[in-house]
Amino acid sequence: MPEGPSLRKFHHLVSPFVGQQVVKTGGSSKKLCPAVLQSLWLLDAQVRLVLHFGGGGFLAFYSCQMSWSPPPELSPTCDILSEAFHRGQALEALGRAQPVCYTLMDQRFFSGLGNIIKNEALYRAGIHPLTPGALLTPSQLEALVDHVVQFSAEWLKDKFQGTRRHTQIYRKEQCPAGHQVLKEALGPPAGLQRLTWWCPQCQPPLPPEEPQ
Ligand SMILES: [Zn+2]
């Protein structure tokens, strides 16, 4: 799954062509004959393929997957890179009983958040991935959302500047403090299991609750 910053940069590059008509097509694809796009109008930027436009400009897509798809139904209030991102809604979702690493990957609440952002935000917030959200304090939840938004925005900025965003925990053997990092596939019982990296010292598990 591509993460938000990659998609945002693509959208930024493609959007000047929205509203223009395809006057000539080129390239090849097993899934879709590029000729069927001739004389169609680019209505929205969602999508091997070359589209030529009336103004002389063209767009070339390499190694991409093409399919006809309905418009996205997700609201900008869930988009971690949107100004309309609704913090309150995100905090409420994160505060549920299930492990925070499951909720972070739920695109209904954190659209654009992928495995790299999940790992990095949890490390920076010092939160163990399997901590049930309901056991975190409001300030820990706030800090986690802050790190999600901040890391995503910085990554997007790096992409526009053509620089690589360095990760602190994702695919690392040691955390920046020099501790040995643990790795395990984690996810909801019936859902996708994603490789998760965490530092047992910087992100300690919460002690079990005392019986009442
Ligand atoms: Zn550490």
UniProtKB/TrEMBL annotation:
It holds the Pfam family H2TH. Transmembrane segments: none annotated. Residues 168-204 form the FPG-type domain. Keywords: Acetylation, DNA damage, DNA repair, DNA-binding, Glycosidase, Hydrolase, Lyase, Metal-binding, Multifunctional enzyme, Nucleus, Phosphoprotein, Zinc, Zinc-finger. The keyword Metal-binding applies. SUPFAM superfamilies: S13-like H2TH domain. GO terms for biological process: base-excision repair. The keyword Lipid biosynthesis does not apply. InterPro entries: H2TH_FPG, Ribosomal_uS13-like_H2TH, Znf_DNA_glyclase/AP_lyase. GO terms for cellular component: nucleus. Its EC number is 4.2.99.18. It is found in: Nucleus. One of its GO terms (molecular function) is zinc ion binding. Binds EP300. Involved in base excision repair of DNA damaged by oxidation or by mutagenic agents. Has DNA glycosylase activity towards 5-hydroxyuracil and other oxidized derivatives of cytosine with a preference for mismatched double-stranded DNA (DNA bubbles). Has low or no DNA glycosylase activity towards thymine glycol, 2-hydroxyadenine, hypoxanthine and 8-oxoguanine. Has AP (apurinic/apyrimidinic) lyase activity and introduces nicks in the DNA strand. Cleaves the DNA backbone by beta-delta elimination to generate a single-strand break at the site of the removed base with both 3'- and 5'-phosphates. This is Endonuclease 8-like 2. It comes from Dipodomys ordii.
